[in-house]
Design a protein that fits this description.
By secondary structure, the chain is α/β, with parallel strands linked by helices. It is built from 11 helices and 12 strands. The chain folds into 2 domains: 8-103 and 111-243, Aspartate Aminotransferase, domain 2 (3-Layer(aba) Sandwich); 246-369, Aspartate Aminotransferase, domain 1, CATH 3.90.1150. The relative contact order is 0.17.
């Protein structure tokens, strides 16, 4: 049975008329950059995320970049973050001329180990950058306490976690700035690239809005150097339609994850765990194949042979990426991140899976590892 990692065609078929009507309205208006659709989306997302300011930008990567710029992070500064994330987390730190300082992860949640964050802070630290990986919030209370003690802003990388909660509060409103991605594979995905920055600070909200339009206010008058981080109106229109379905899609993902956990109980894998403090949205359902050697890769090959998709997020931790060789890290520096890179395997969990597809995927995992 074919079990795809994602089925955007099925998602689109269910909402096609509404999406095409919204896109047609944008073309009829001929207003393609920012404008009323983006403004309306920002208002709806601010309400959904319970934040004062939600600002649409051109991608999740640019959300991180503009957040760092708004906080004045630059050459000579350090940003404390995780080595186990999508490249943009550390890549954007490097792009503004700062240095990513890595802290190993919690092996249960894959998120940064909050107990280790304070030891990584130096006089050069300018911000803390936790990631809410796979749709689960990092352990934010101790991170925020450390940030307060050291007078440091917290940037939340919530690219995979829109709608996730920590102690009843939506991520993105816990730190100084939240960053989200609308890449098509996300729980709320657009028709291309798009992103969002959020904040409850009025001054930061104003700075972010100015920075996304080349730092100009009013137009053609520039007191700071910004970038072209604007969100397209077509993306705004598509995302507004999809936002109406987001909670039902989250619910379907939770049900699919629960079914996997039931079917894989007792299998020779480590199943994902949701912290008691968290509401997870299951951007990924990630197991750990900890039998050693190439067991994870053999499982993935076996699944592929049965036409069942899987994915590795992420095969090389950030501290071992060649572009960060000048940081001087080597194997063994962050053992939990390195172990996760060799063991983690994500199974399809998207809301358009059928019960038979989930059963087929789980059965295949058990049989291949038996």
């Amino acid at each position: 049975m074919r079990v795809p990692m994602l089925d955007l065609k099925a998602q689109h078929a269910a909402i096609r008329e509404d999406v095409m009507r919204a896109v047609a309205a944008v073309f009829d208006s001929q207003h393609f950059i920012l404008g009323p659709e983006v403004k309306a989306l920002e208002a709806e997302l601010a309400e959904y995320l319970d934040v004062k300011h939600a600002i649409g930008v051109s991608s999740g990567t640019d959300a991180l970049l503009v957040a760092l710029m708004a906080l004045g992070v630059g050459p000579g500064d350090e940003v404390v973050t995780t080595p186990f994330s999508f490249f943009a987390t550390a890549g954007c730190v490097a792009r503004v001329g700062a240095t990513p300082v890595f802290v190993d992860i919690d092996p249960v949640t894959f998120n940064v180990d909050a107990a280790r964050v304070e030891a990584a802070i130096t006089p050069r630290t300018k911000a803390l950058l936790p990631v809410h990986l796979y749709g689960q919030s990092a352990d934010m209370d101790p991170i925020l306490e450390v940030a307060t003690r050291h007078a440091l802003p917290v940037i939340e990388d919530g690219a995979q976690a829109i709608g996730s909660e920590y102690r009843g509060r939506r991520v993105g409103g816990l730190g100084a700035i939240g960053c989200f991605s609308f890449f098509p594979s996300k729980n709320l995905g657009g028709a291309g690239d798009g992103g969002l920055v959020t904040t409850n600070d009025d001054a930061l909200g104003e700075a972010l809005r100015i920075l996304r339009v080349h730092g100009g206010k009013p137009k053609y008058f520039h007191h700071v150097v910004g970038g072209n981080f604007r969100l397209d109106a077509v993306q705004g229109a598509v995302l507004r339609v999809k936002l109406r379905h987001l909670e039902s899609w989250h619910a379907a993902r939770r049900a699919n994850a629960a079914r996997y956990t039931e079917l894989l109980a007792g299998a020779p894998v480590t199943l994902p765990v949701v912290a008691d403090t968290n509401r997870m949205i299951w951007n990924q359902y990630t197991i750990r194949v900890n039998a050693g050697g190439d067991a994870r890769d053999a499982l993935r090959a076996g699944l592929a042979a049965r036409d069942i998709d899987s994915a590795i997020y992420y095969p090389v931790p950030l501290h071992l990426q060649r572009c960060f060789a000048d940081l001087g890290h080597s194997e063994g520096d962050f053992p939990e991140a390195e172990r996760a890179a060799g063991e983690a395997l994500s199974l399809p969990v998207h809301p358009d899976l059928s019960p038979l597809q989930i059963e087929a995927a789980a059965r295949a995992v058990r049989e291949i590892l038996a």
